[in-house]
Amino acid sequence: MFRLIRLFGALFSLSLRRTLAFRADMFFELVTTCIGAAASLAALGMVFSRTASLGGWSAGEATVLLGTFQVVTGLRSTFVEPNLAWFGGQVKNGQFDAVLLQPAPAIFLASFGAFAPLALIQVGAGLCIVTGGVVQAGLTITATGVLGWLVVVAAATVVMWATRLMLASVVFWAFGLDLDVLYDAVWQFARYPVQIYSPVLRVAFTYALPVALIATVPVEALMRGGGGVLAALAVAGGAGGIAWLIWRRGLRRYTSATS
To answer: According to the model, what pLDDT value does residue 26 have?
Structure first.
């Protein structure tokens, strides 16, 4: 475990050094992130210009949820997408062979072989939005609530990685099937409280798909002083275990491009 942590740090450091070689990219990433955040806040403001409540959530609470969504999305863009977005192509063209030959677990290298450190700007923007939403809503935040929010966000990140890995592993069974667009479409439903959707979708987004866990559950933990933490941890552990099993089964089907 400690060896993997050191490897994670080394790979992140390498990606950071590569990124800093193009410092102009940092400026443009900051500008585009600010524009995207402003656009999201403007869209939310337009919604609340027509109503005082959205699924029982006030404007400030919905802003906290939007910021939480931005944080998890930033973590996804930083740590997960730079690897799994291209995983299917690596399997198809044989580059995955090089991953299997490395002296480290293939699931680790396939998931965390490279990073996009500039995407952490999205995380910073999300934290600013969360802070602004807390002030706007006049919420009384406790240390337990903040800790619960952090733990559930971490659990949501694990579930996000696990579900993304499951979809990427589909390539072992169907080379031509690409579910990235579907995943991105479902991901966008987390921008808003899960309570605004129909009962059927609410059940699906809570128990079948991790939509509620991405932002709604963390914010509820923040406001309720840490509620839902144990359930989130259980879901994260279950999702991680299922992803690992699917990965192992997929590897048994993999045929090296050189064989």
So the answer is: 81
